[in-house]
Fold this protein.
Amino acid sequence: MSTAAPPVASDERLVAIGLGKRLLTRPDIGAFLGAIAVFLGFSYFARDVNWFGDPAIWASWSDQAAQYGIVAVPVALLMIGGEFDLSAGVMIGSSGLLLGYLATHADMNIWPAMVIVLLFGLTIGFLNGITVVKTRLPSFIVTLATFFILQGVNAALTLKLTGQTAIQDIDTAGGFDSARRWLASEITQYDFKVKVLWWVGLTIVGAWLLSKARFGNWIYSAGGDPVAARNIGVPVARTKVMLFMMTSGVASLMGIIEALELRSMQSKEGIGLEFIFIICAVVGGCLLTGGYGSVIGTFFGAAMLGMVQLGIVFAQWDSNWTFTFQGVILFLAVMLNTLIRNRAQKAR
Amino acid sequence: MIVAGEIGNGAPHLLQVENISKYFGSVVALNDVSAHANAGEVTCILGDNGAGKSSFIKIVSGVHEQDEGRMLVDGEDVRFHSPRDARARGIATVYQDLAMCPLMSIWRNFFLGEEPTKWRGPFSRLDVALAKRTAREQMAQMGIDVRDPEQPVGTLSGGERQAVAIARAIYFGARVLILDEPTSALGVKQAAIVLRYILQARDRGIGVIFITHNPHHAFPVGDHFILLNRGRVIGDYEKGTVTRDELVRQMAGGAELEALTHELEGLTASE
Ligand SMILES: Nc1ncnc2c1ncn2[C@@H]1O[C@H](COP(=O)(O)OP(=O)(O)O)[C@@H](O)[C@H]1O
Ligand SMILES: [Mg+2]
């Protein structure tokens, strides 16, 4: 212990980094700027309506964005933790159908039925997670299997139990109105959805978890270098299983919200959304290899996709262009992420 | 060959392994290996690539479980099922791959798995300010001035990263510090700096286990040398009972090397 510790003060090697450059190493900034660009773009293309100032238009795209953004929060955390969940979309359908079945055919009150649905979601997430952790198979494959299994179950079981391809009249259940008020009502005269508050709230919780909680450090390391993380004492397997449970659990919440909002549930509901969630997360800076990303960025990713969806309607384009837009956004986001990642690694 | 026993005064070794074997399928990675480490000493484990050095320390640090043999800490039988068990016993390891996430910041890596928190229960949160300050202070003690604790570890030099890993292990109260080939990826100057960290840790009373394939790095810092070859202990020397040249010779396979040298000399002579 002979070396004198150099002073821990300011250092001439610490060059002041320009604001612009600092922003470029933040994964959420690109998503924010992208959302602004899309917003401004449609204020031109959808100029026949008052895209800028009409609260009803804000209400409709934010409704769509919340639809994507709620589940995108845990999907982003899961991706940062190094895994995918392709069953996150179909879980919305499974959960909504289960709620509908319990409410209409099992004559349950909606509140206990909601608890059962959430437990169902957590269980599926646990099974996904434990399978991935134990078999070490890529989660892409494991959850693709879950996706297809549930897709079949949703369609076949709904038809068998109800004789139809949907479950109707969910609003006949006891407790429906109070549950709907909390989860799926409109909160202002312009029809802003309470769902939007859930989206914002979950984003805040997710961002807090990632940056301020111990669990956040574990998520980063589980995706960044799982072997290293385990060797240093991080419970990587537990972290991953919990992330899968969060993803399926929130997808179940989304299923509940949809069932309450629509008062019925189609057996095909939710299918295809799994990729939208992943696009939101990628726009939010999440790397496909894990270890990096942002929940706030994912929020703006969902906002962007919500605007695109509604913007195309208001601009009176063929709605099939939505897919093309989503593809272009995904591509640009991946390019930008690669740039940002290289900057973060090489920095200064 | 000297059989590993107890220290002079009969006190148990800080860490002792007896007759450990490890198999990976049909590969015998370790065969009946015994060794020990004492506080305030540097124990060098020398061996060529594939000798079983990494397998050995992975058992000691709880990554793998041994198939045969036993392990004692302070004379007490232990069995580790995870790296957490080993850490609870004060055994900290700096792995060859350093166990760091390159995209994570210095302070997040420094506290990985041992994050400081404030408040309890559901509001428990990282004490980020404390973590950043401590990481800087500890690195300064190793003679490295961290410019910005938010800097991703991937942007540090090899020696600096090694220092983060060693500082982290020492900070978390390591009694046994295991370093797996800490100098192998470094240039001459940086390797010398890492050797100095090893002596610093030793002077703090830590039992250092230094794994290397380079006898020139081991000789100046080691108190005790164990040579591994093909999973077996082929030599076990206290400092002063072996010369540097003897270590080099043993490492290179002794007689085999001499034969090879002759052959090479023959080749160059005939040109
Ligand atoms: N996880 C593993 N699975 C199978 N074989 C392994 C594994 N780890 C090490 N080995 C084998 O055990 C032997 C010793 O390897 P290792 O301990 O890494 O040697 P060293 O660190 O001395 O270079 C090698 O033959 C290696 O291929
Ligand atoms: Mg090795």
Notes: The longest strand of chain B covers residues 27-37. The two ends of chain B are 41 Å apart (CA to CA).
